[in-house]
Amino acid sequence: MRSSAYYSAGPLARLAVILALGMAMSGLGDLLYTLAVWLLVLGLIGGGWPWAPPLGNWAGRGRLAVGVRMTGLAGLLTLATHALTPREAVFTAFMWGTALGAWPLRHLPPGRALLLGAAGVYASAYALRALDVGWGVYVWTMAAAALLSPPFGVQGYPFRRLYRQPYMGIGAVLASLVLGIAAASLMPHGLGLALTLWALAYSWPLEYLGASRYAQPRRGAMCAALALSVAPLWDAVFSPEVTVGAINALVIHTQFWMGYPLDPALPPGMPPPGQRGEREMLKDWCC
User: Fold this and answer.
1) How far, in Å, are 39, 118, 167, 200, 285 from residue 250 at the CA level?
2) Which of 18, 149, 254, 284 has the fewest CB atoms inside 10 Å of its own CB, making it the most exposed?
3) DSSP letters of 66-88?
4) What are the CA-CA distances from residue 272 to residues 48, 52, 99, 204, 275 (Å)?
5) Given a cut of 70, is residue 287 above it in pLDDT?
6) Statement: residue 7 has pLDDT above 50
């Protein structure tokens, strides 16, 4: 077991790295949205295959090597598909990877799941493009899903009462759509992107900072309160491109680089309220 001093850098240090990287990436323009698609497909739908955790072959490789490989793969896929990628693909990849947990691909080998997931994301995105729905509706639906889906925010509460996927995912998707359509008619999409960023950040790299000891739905309510408080301030200062860059940086640094050179964050959906032993075991396992 590594010494506790090795993990002295906390959630706020991870957040600082993510925000700095996000601002640096903001100059990529529309490439940011194609990159977001592939980060979601590789990370949430493909489970980190082929090299990142949890489903990739990363055992025995250092975090730096894994991060470089996965980031390079995402970059190559972005450049190869940018001209063919509709922006709606961000929405389909996000909703499938979060609310539905990539159902029904989880029983397949991760490589096959990745290929089928990518095909499904693009096919559904082109179908949605034909509907000509405003981008704001998609953004605000993703913001609601970032708070309602099983990995983040309230972690699927109360939809977990529906037992398993796809039922709880369908419940989260329908609720997110209702909230997204209502919010899009009243507020700008930049604010929805900022809310998505902070809902994800507080649930994942920040590990429900100050709220991890509470059970759901109190923990999720505290997440929502923080995200709703910070998002307007963030949107007033930073452009949507910086926000999308920060969301991309969050996935890259937290999953692909496993927090390198800082301590790794726990996987989405498993904050360990007061269980220090499990935290140390996880960090020793991945690092």
Assistant:
1) 10, 21, 28, 8, 21
2) 284
3) HHHHHHHHHHHHHHHHGGG--TH
4) 22, 22, 21, 12, 5
5) no
6) no
